[in-house]
Request: fold
Amino acid sequence: MRLLRYLTWLGVLLATPLALAEQKETLGDWDVHYMVVNTTFLTPEVASTYGIVRSKYNALVNLSVLDKTTHEAQRLSVSGEATNLLGNTRDLSFKKVEDGDAIYYLSVLPFRDQETFRFNIEIRKGNDSETLRFKQQMYTD
Reply:
């Protein structure tokens, strides 16, 4: 529950350009909650617990996928990539974190100050597949 409380707090309270409040998209039968924050916003203890390197040049991509009817967290496969405006693509390797009833998918993305990325994240469960697409500019703190 510590990560859940921390990330909830983080999504509500942060107002810096990199740390936009949590966003949500409905894709098929799922509500996909997502946010991208600078890893320096994580406490050293939380970062260490989940194997995340804190750096002003690392962003944390955080997704949570809920059934849009039952609101239950979904166990599924998440993969993706982030492409900057120069066309350089970085693969996103997501790690599943279960925290009580909550399930998070976390990936670290290295970036440079004021770098803009287009995210394409594939979410798959069985034969069902959806793609989350969004764009975000990154800033160092």
